[in-house]
Amino acid sequence: MYKITLLPGDGIGPDIMAATKKILAATNVPIEWEEYIAGEFAIAEYGTPLPEHVLESIRRNKIALKGPLTTPVGTGFRSINVALRMKFDLFANIRPARTYKGIVSRFDNIDLVMIRENTEDLYSGVEHMVGEDAAESIKIITRKGSERICRFAFEYALKNNRRKVTAIHKANILKCTDGLFLEVFYQVAKDYPQIESEDRIVDNMCMQLVQKPELYDVLVAPNLYGDIVSDLCAGLVGGLGVVPGANIGHEMAIFEPVHGSAPKYAGLDRANPTALILSAVMMLRYLGEYSEAYRVENALAAVIKEGKVVTPDLGGNARGMEMAEEIIRKMG
Ligand code: NAI
User: Fold this and answer.
1) pLDDT tens, 4-44?
2) Would you call 89 a catalytic residue per the annotation?
3) What is the rounded CA–CA span in Å between residue 117 and residue 149?
4) Which of 71, 159, 290, 318 could hold 79 in an S-S bridge, CB 3.0 to 4.6 Å?
5) Most ligand 1 atoms within 8 A of CB, residue of 75, 123, 259, 265 to mutate
C-alpha cells in the first residue's frame, strides 16, 4: 500500500483531481491518500496557504500528487508551488510535451522534454523596492545547482533513449549567471559523449521551437526560461490541458500539471483532466508501477484519439469526469 499526500488545489484543481483519483482507483495500484487542502481554501480555514500538517504529510510520505494552486499577481502571498519545490529541494522539474493523435495542433509529431531547474534563478525570492520608483530582483545561479540539473538532464536522456540535450540561456547578456550555467552544462556534457549537446539563446530557442520543433529533444534551462518555454511547448501539442509535470528531488517527488488553476473554469468540470492524469502516470512510473502506468496512458490516448468523450479544449463537449469514466472503460 502506497501512502501518498493529495492536494486537490484551487480553481479547477478539485474537478480534475476527482477525475484523476477515480482513474487511479480503477488501477491495480493500492494507494492510501492523505488528502489536505492548501492554497485559497486553507487560508480560509487555517489562516495560511501552506499549513504545517500538509508539509509534515509530504515529508513523511515523500510523495505527493497536487492540483494547481493560485498565486495572487503583484501583491499578496508568495507562490506555494514555488515554496513546496524549494522547501523539499525538488530541484528538477520534468515537463514532457508530446503529440497525442486526435489533438488538433499545428504539429503532429512533437516529442520534447523540458527539464527545468526548480530552486534558483529569479525565483530566489530576493526582491525589494529601492525607494518608491525602482525595484530589484536577484537572479541566483550556482555551480552546484547548475551541475545537478544538467546532470539530471543528461541522465534522463540516457535512461530514456534520447539523442540530444539543448541548454537554454541568455549568456550573451547575463554573462555571470547564465554564463556560469552554460559553462557547467558543457562540463557535464563531457561525461556523456554518447548524447549530443548544444545550446541556444532563449529568444532564438522560442523562434526555433515554433518553426522546427522536430530538431529538439531534451531541453534544460534555468528556472524562468524553463517556466516560459514549457508553456510554449504546451502550445505546440494542444495546450496546457495536456502537459504533465514532475518535481523531483533526491528522495522526494511532487507530481502536478504544468497549468495553473484557471479560475474562470472553477467548479464547472469543463477543464481537461489529461495533464493531471498524465502527471499521475509519471507518478506510477516513479513508483515502479510500469504496467499500470502504461495501461492508463494507453486508455487515455485511445479516448483522445477517438475524440468523442473529450473536454471542450480538445473539441468535445464532455465533462472531465465523463472523460475519466471513458478512460476507465477503455482500461478494461
Ligand atoms: P492557467 O494555466 O491557470 O490558465 C491559462 C489558460 O489555459 C486557461 O484560461 C485555460 O484557457 C487554459 N487551461 C489551463 N489549464 C487547462 C485545463 N486543464 N483544461 C483546459 N484548459 C486549460 O494560467 P493562469 O491563468 O496564468 O494562472 C491562473 C493561476 O494559476 C494563477 O494564480 C497562477 O499563479 C496559478 N498557477 C499555478 C501553477 C501551479 O499550481 N503549479 C502553475 C501555473 C499557474
Assistant:
1) 999 999 999 999 999 999 999 999 999 999 999 999 889 98
2) no
3) 6
4) 71
5) 259
Domain end: 237, 254, 272, which one?
A: 237
Strand duo 218-221 + 111-117: pairing: parallel
Q: Domain residues for 245?
A: 1-95+241-332
Whose Cα sits closest to atom 10 in ligand 1?
Answer: 262
**Distance from C-alpha of 309 to C-alpha of 324, rounded to nearest angstrom:** 9
Residue 72: pLDDT above 90? no
Q: What is the mean pLDDT of residues 219-225?
A: 98
pTM reported for the whole predicted model? 0.96
175 tagged catalytic: no
The C-alpha cell at 319 is: 465533462
Q: Whose CA is nearest to atom 17 of ligand 1?
A: 241
CATH assignment at residue 268: 3.40.718.10
CB of 247 shorter than 6 A to ligand 1: no
3-state secondary structure 127-155: EEEECCCEEEECCECCHHHHHHHHHHHHH
pLDDT score recorded for residue 332: 84
- Please check whether residues 211 and 283 belong to one and the same domain: no
Which of 75-79, 131-135, 218-222 shows the lowest per-residue confidence on average (mean pLDDT)?
A: 75-79
Which of 208, 211, 210, 192 lies closest to 200 in space, CA to CA? 208
